[in-house]
Write a structure and sequence with these properties.
CATH superfamily of the largest domain: Type I PLP-dependent aspartate aminotransferase-like (Major domain)
CATH architecture of the largest domain: 3-Layer(aba) Sandwich
Number of strands: 12
Distance between the termini: 48 Å
Structural class: alpha/beta
Oligomer: single chain
CATH class of the largest domain: Alpha Beta
Radius of gyration: 22 Å
Number of helices: 13
CATH topology of the largest domain: Aspartate Aminotransferase, domain 2
Strand content: 5-15%
Order of helices and strands: EHHEHEHEHEHEHEEHHHHEEHEEH
Largest sheet: 7 strands, mixed
């Protein structure tokens, strides 16, 4: 396979990308040449060898497991493959050893991925959901004080997104995990809007569980994702989501001869027990290609590059009367710049007009959201502002 080289501010690995400016990585990342070649390599191998191709790609995924662990600041045996963020949330929501009336702390304004599974678990296990306002995070001190007040009343788990999909604001994960642990709770993090664009170290931050899909900032395909569980927490999970590959040595009856087919073999004790069935070989080979590019550049470098782009655009939009929702504190910034148009009711219309001008962005919950990544060039910003001027009639 080709040894692809990623270069900040270069779209050389995205020759088919049609948008003049692509700033929608918080929704879906386009596929790079590396991702596309990886997918073709798997399909060609299966086309030629059929079942003979399986073993090689099975081993290749172990390399991806280690690379994802590196990206997370974790160990490989704390990382599992999932199809998406939701599957990771569900595995933990259904696998924790709940007690009736355990309280689960959730946040309003979260993407439903990090709410619905907890509410389902609450209904199934007799839990008590407690909602706190995500708007608190505009004042970190206030957010932490309210969380501590809630934890003092008792809680089993706090679920939060590392980055708000609406505003792009990062939450203080280390401070939150410290509070959780001081009061006997665990911290679950939905990291889909962070991983790949924001430096994360699960050990240093004290995160107990984390899930993220591969199709946004990890720049892989849909149908891929990662689930992290700290060793001590994984050992306490009840494997309610398990399948044939969840057993220890699950393949030996296929290759080791007669008499090895058993249903009472122990289940794996690390988080990989959630890898219950045949994996997405195409998707994870592609994710491996994209993660390799991220590690090649370094997430800290990518984060700085993205924010140079967002810095320039934010200044221009504020000058034109837009309200920025981006954190003033650099430590609370992600890869997202969200704004509201001078006439808030026109924000969706501005989004539609920009997309018609070849500027790909999004408008979740009525916020105009720009999400560049490492291939974006800072000199794209004037293109965006010129389009804004044209549609506002000020050019």
């Amino acid at each position: 396979m080709t040894d692809f080289v990623a270069e900040l501010g270069s779209r050389a690995l995205f020759p088919k990308l049609s948008a003049r400016v692509y700033a929608a990585h918080a929704a879906i990342s386009p596929h790079s040449l590396a991702v596309r070649e990886a997918i073709l390599a798997v399909t060609d191998d299966y086309a030629e060898h059929g079942v003979g191709a399986v073993g090689g790609w099975f081993q290749a995924r172990e390399g991806l497991r280690q690379r994802l662990a590196t990206l997370l600041g974790a160990e490989a045996d704390e990382v599992a493959f999932v199809r998406n963020t939701t599957e990771g949330v569900v595995a933990i929501a259904m696998g924790l050893p709940w007690r009736r009336d355990d309280r689960v702390v959730l946040y309003t304004g979260e993407f439903p991925t990090n709410v619905t599974p907890w509410l389902s678990a609450a209904e199934a296990h007799g839990l008590v959901p407690v909602f706190l306002p995500s708007s608190d995070f505009t004042d970190t001190t206030r957010a932490l004080e309210r969380l501590e007040d809630t934890l003092r009343e008792g809680a089993r788990l706090v679920a939060v997104s590392a980055v708000s999909f609406q505003t792009g604001r990062r939450v203080p994960l280390k401070a939150m995990s410290d509070l959780c642990h001081a009061h006997g709770a665990v911290l679950f993090v939905d990291a889909i809007q962070a991983l790949g664009a924001v430096p994360i170290n699960v050990h240093d931050s004290g995160i107990d569980f984390l899930a993220a899909g591969g199709h946004k900032w990890l720049m892989g395909p849909e149908g891929t994702g990662v689930l992290y569980a700290a060793r001590d927490q994984a050992a306490q999970l009840v494997p309610r989501v398990a399948g044939w590959l969840s057993h220890e040595e699950p393949l030996d009856f296929l290759f080791g001869g007669e008499g090895l087919l058993r249903y009472d073999k122990p289940l794996k004790r690390d988080i990989s027990f959630v890898e219950a069935g045949v994996p997405n070989a195409l998707g994870f080979a592609a994710l491996d290609a994209s993660v390799s590019l991220l590690l090649q550049l370094g997430v800290e470098t990518i984060h700085q590059h993205i924010n140079q782009w967002n810095d320039a655009l934010e200044v221009g939009l504020i000058e034109r009367g837009f309200e920025s929702l981006r954190a003033s504190d650099a430590d609370a910034r992600s890869g997202i710049l969200s704004v509201i148009a001078p006439d808030p009711g026109a924000t969706v219309g501005v989004h539609d007009a920009l997309n018609a001008h070849g500027i790909s962005c999004n408008v979740p919950d009525g916020k105009l959201r720009f999400a560049p990544h490492w291939p974006n060039r800072v000199d794209e910003v004037p293109v965006v502002l010129e389009a804004i001027d044209a549609l506002m009639g000020t050019r």
